[in-house]
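User: Please work through this fold.
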Amino acid sequence: MAKMRKKSDLPQKTCVTCGRPFTWRKKWEKVWDEVRYCSDRCRDTRPKQAQAPGPTGRRSG
């Protein structure tokens, strides 16, 4: 049986959206390097990237 780790021993990251620290989760085991957000809410409210110009080279609006 695998040894249990204390939560304080798990790796941590800082959420890109809210800036709060979050710890490693088992479901992120294979994609930990790609995880950037602490929750679905932060992922959904992430900063939007600037719009790319349309086919005419002008921005709409």
